[in-house]
Amino acid sequence: MDTYEAVISKRDIRHYTEAPIPDDVLNRILQAGRMAGSAKNNESNRLIVFRDQAVQNALAESGDFSSWIGTSAAVIGIAVPKNLMLMFDVGRMAQNMMVSAHAEGLGSCPVTLQHQDRTRAAAGLPDDWDMTMVITLGWPIPDAPDSPLKRTRVPLEELVSYDRWT
């Protein structure tokens, strides 16, 4: 799969098999996250891989729409110092890892964690760090139901303007 195909065919997946993710595959995904650009080359974000079921279940309680977290083979958390909350950097890391996971045949989905007190307790984060986003990873179930939010994308002609708002 070339880069363009990986980007345009990636979909968020929330239903996974129980198969584990081999370490070499996981390391390639983490490396893709590490190579994302960083504002002023700060590289302040840190990644935490969660495979332990009890921790994943605790993380599922940290978000308002995160019930499937515990069904994935791994969860990658993106931890950020509170004083350097660079959400664009978080998004860049997340997208790199999700597209790379897709190219490996894995499914992934970003999850927002709204309750940072619960997140810190589950992940063991210090008080001056937040982890508002995690990514679930796993091998997709072949006959998983479509998302109830599934829709077609806005046509390019409607999405893009040139030189001025139209």
3D architecture notes:
- With 166 residues, the chain is an alpha+beta fold.
- It is 34% helix and 17% strand.
- It is built from 6 helices and 4 strands.
- The chain has a 4-stranded antiparallel β-sheet, sandwiched between helices.
- The protein starts with a helix and ends in a 7-residue tail after the last helix.
- The mean pLDDT is 91.
Write the layout of secondary structure elements.
Blueprint: H1 3-9, H2 23-34, E1 46-50, H3 53-60, E2 74-81, H4 87-103, E3 107-112, H5 116-123, E4 129-138, H6 156-159
Antiparallel strand pairs: 1-2, 2-4, 3-4
Helix pairs in contact: 2-4, 3-5
CATH superfamily: NADH Oxidase
Strands in their spatial order, largest beta sheet: 1-2-4-3
Q: Strand percentage, roughly? A: 15-25%
Mind summarizing the main beta sheet? 4 strands, antiparallel
Query: How many domains would you count in the coordinates?
Result: 1
SS elements, strand count: 4
What percentage of residues falls in helices of 4 or more residues? 25-40%
Output the helix-strand order: HHEHEHEHEH
Give me the number of helical elements.
Answer: 6
- Radius of gyration using CA atoms only: 17 Å
Architecture, CATH level 2? 3-Layer(aba) Sandwich
- What is the general shape? globular
**Helix vs. strand class:** alpha+beta
- Tell me, what is the CATH class? Alpha Beta
| Cα end-to-end separation | 35 Å
Average pLDDT rating: 91
